[in-house]
Specification:
Helix content is 40%, strand content 13%. The protein has 295 residues and is of the alpha/beta class. The chain folds into two domains: 230 residues, Phosphoenolpyruvate-binding domains (TIM Barrel, Alpha-Beta Barrel), CATH 3.20.20; 29 residues, no CATH class. α3 crosses α5. It is globular. The N and C termini lie far apart (65 Å).
Length: 295
């Protein structure tokens, strides 16, 4: 870690928590969250939050709130494009979303999720897809799912200067192979999960997402690694947590996973607003003189 990064990481709040500003940042609020800041927070035992974002408004709001990492997830398949799973979403569909989030976020580190079919065929395919996210999407890092089979690609990308966030445990892109949404890493599979995480770290990954993993196993992985672990359905023992923003804000209807906590009822708020608007239009209460122009 450079002396400059070390100095910034030692500040009380290395990623900032105040509103966006156009002026120069103080040492405690760097212009951009970098991987050394995340690493420093692990070393200091300070958990941090990550949220998904798919558009400029969500990115601006979460950035202003001080969320240090924004993930443009392949979960856009379910939450933007209306697919039943993440599998159908394509690279071409994600690149514009990544670009929108990257351009809107002033401080957060933006991670682009490599979609199914964009990296599993060959090292060259994975490299080309990651380069598109970095060049066209303006991403700061990419995320990919999978354990030891992904080690060569992680090494190739990091050697080429592309930071990689790994993802093990339950991997949604493999849900058909895994037999649906099932907790991973139980019993004898726990040792395998730890070894996969170590292999990904050795290959150069700067962090590892642990999805739907028993909390004791997530604790083992977190203790075994020097890089941050990011939990989603992995208990509170990881170095960071991530949630899909439409889940945490209560935008989606129906059942949500057990590990999701709703911090707002955005769906209810928008529903009430739309009903009120429709009613006012029907009764000609809107637009009223205040919202009209005079001759």
């Amino acid at each position: 870690m450079s002396d400059d990064a070390t100095e910034q990481a030692e500040q009380p709040n290395p990623y900032g928590s105040g509103p966006r500003d156009a002026g120069a940042s103080s040492p405690a609020t760097p212009r951009r969250v970098r991987i050394p800041h995340l690493q420093a927070m692990k070393e200091q035992g300070r958990p941090w939050a990550m949220l998904t974002a798919y558009d400029m408004y969500a990115a601006e709001i979460f950035d202003e709130a001080g969320i240090p990492v924004l993930l443009v997830g392949d979960s856009a398949g379910n939450n933007v494009y209306g697919y039943d799973t993440t599998v159908p979403v394509t690279l071409d569909e994600l690149v514009p979303l990544v670009r929108a989030v990257s351009r809107a976020a002033r401080r957060a580190l933006v991670v682009a999720d490599m979609p199914f079919g964009s990296y599993g065929g060959s090292l060259q395919q994975g490299f080309d897809s990651a380069v598109r996210f970095m060049k066209e999407g303006l991403a700061h890092a990419v995320k990919l799912e999978g354990g030891e089979p992904m080690v060569p690609l992680v090494r190739l990308l990091t050697d080429a200067g592309i930071p990689v966030m790994a993802h093990i445990g339950f991997t949604p892109q493999s849900e058909h192979q895994l037999g649906g949404y099932r907790v991973q890493g139980r019993g004898d599979a726990a040792d395998r999960l730890v070894e996969e995480a170590r292999a990904l770290e050795a290959a150069g990954a700067f962090s590892v997402v642990l999805e739907m993993v028993p909390a004791p196993v997530a604790a083992r992985v977190t203790q075994a690694l020097t890089i941050p672990t990011i939990g989603i359905g992995a208990g509170n023992v990881t170095d960071a947590q991530v949630l899909v923003w439409s889940d945490f804000a209560g935008l989606r209807a129906g059942r949500t996973p057990r590990f999701v906590k709703k911090y707002a009822d955005l769906r209810g708020t928008l529903l009430d607003a739309a009903r009120t608007y429709a009613a006012e239009v029907e009764t000609r209460a809107f637009p009223d003189p205040e919202h009209s122009f005079e001759s």
